[in-house]
Design a protein that fits this description.
Blueprint (H helix, E strand, L loop, with lengths): L1 H20 L8 E5 L3 E3 L4 E6 L6 E6 L2 E8 L5 E6 L8 E8 L10 E8 L6 E7 L4 E7 L8 E7 L7 E5 L6 E7 L4 E9 L12 E4 L11 E3 L2 H15 L7 H32 L1 H13 L1 H14 L4
Parallel strand pairs: 2-8
Antiparallel strand pairs: 1-3, 3-6, 4-5, 4-7, 7-8, 9-10, 10-13, 11-12, 11-14, 14-15, 15-16
Protein name: V-set and transmembrane domain-containing protein 1 isoform X3
Organism: Echinops telfairi (Lesser hedgehog tenrec)
Keywords: Membrane, Transmembrane
Length: 313
Amino acid sequence: MHTECLLLLCLGLCLGYEEEKKPVTLPKPLLRAWPSSVAESRSNVTLTCRSPFRNSTFCLGKLNSTELEQRLSPVGKDAELLLTDLQPEDAGQYFCAYKTADSQGWSKREHVHLVVTGSLPKPSLSYTLRLEDHRLTLQCLIPYNGTEYLAVALLKAGLQAPLQVMKIRKDHPGIMYWSVMIQQSGNYSCVYYQWDFPYLASFPSNFLKYTLRDEGGYERPETTERPETLQREIEENEALDTPSSKPGSTRLIFVTVFTCISIVLLFLFIFLIYRCTQHNSAPGESTERASCAEVPDEEAPESADLGSDLEPR
């Protein structure tokens, strides 16, 4: 009896040890970009990675970039990566993985594509209303610019991620169609971008605002330009035209002003020398001018002969 109990105890310990050694497969984390994964240039975005387990260690960063890779160990279930003053080179694929104290390795990576707009010409968004099937067809027209590996995203204000994303080929006609239900009111826009390096993206299109009425009807969609995009374009143009927006602009302005003043003083000095020279030779020149004024009527033939003598030999 005692022998059987010992055998069962040893078997249970061995099975438990084998279960401990068996690797645990961790589920993927949840990775989100706030306020949106489609952001304008010079704006800020926060990447939030969430683990289903507490006290996890996170690895959060950008693919093919060691500079933006961070290993974080928060107390809770979340880890954040703040990206400020976004530039076109900040666009691309970001990832997140985590591990726990009991796991022997990292979880599978979750990815999010960050789009930074403002590098390519903006598309235009129009619509077709089909009342028979209560649907709204949105049409995003992409200007041809020879860019390859494009993806087109339909955006809706208030959502953190694009509503729909479609990849297109280079020989695509350049117009994308989306169909939404009439009940899905909101502000729509579209943007296209490169889904491969260098990840350039266009300016967002115009807004297409669609509103349902309380009594069950609908208002005809209205297209409006983005005021923040127009203001940003104006600011960028002014920044390019203003020397003070560039490093070392103070020194450049000083050198330019000093050069202009030097040129003005040089011309003034030359003018004064010329005036003094003219003043000293004024009597002789007046006599010569008086005699020359009287010559043409009487010595015209000689002037013709002088002209022939000046021909090259």
